[in-house]
Amino acid sequence: MSGLIYRLLIGAGQTTLGYKEAFKRCQSGWKVLDVGTGDGFALLRNKDIILEKNLSIVCVEPDAQAAKLLELEIAKEGLENQVKVRVEYLSHASQSEYNCCLCITTLVVFPTTEERRDCVDMCLSHVKPAGKVILHQTLYGGLNNIFLLSRYLTSFTAYYLYRPLYLNDLKSIFSGRLWVMESIHWLAPFMLFTVSK
Ligand SMILES: C[S@@+](CC[C@H](N)C(=O)[O-])C[C@H]1O[C@@H](n2cnc3c(N)ncnc32)[C@H](O)[C@@H]1O
């Protein structure tokens, strides 16, 4: 039931759009790392663009149950050649082999600002020097408390009360780095999209 509510409220809209916008920013044939894919509902709704761009995607998902569902869905969609699953936590890379690393709504599951900064560093360690890290996340500033309230209400089912991402968090995580921030939706600043240079 909670999965269904999550899909209706978040997965079918915001998250699917997050993946779509990220894939639009990938070049054909790129090798992509997706951090925290979950059961792949939002990722696989973008099957067309994955095939069109001939992307090769590795999904890192530590939840064995979600990873199993993800593998089943990949097989159902006939995407075994394009999308692979690794049941593991994101870690620092020994070699930077990806053109792009995606972190689509996953940053919030890291509980503290330090862990979020470490997550971004781990993402950066996986990409080649000219590669991209693309983060898609809902952002909370000072003015959008109404959205904050709605997030808390949905979080019981969708986000298990993860600590939301506040503007100050983000400033502290990204200060000193060169990032392009794009808002990709009319709900901005509720919607945030961040791309590294
Ligand atoms: C909010 S969900 C996002 C799922 C998917 N990216 C989407 O947007 O639909 C976060 C996912 O990250 C996974 N996760 C939690 N800790 C992780 C870690 N340390 N490394 C990689 N993934 C992690 C969770 O199991 C969960 O499936």
From TrEMBL:
This is Methyltransferase domain-containing protein. It comes from Rhodosorus marinus.
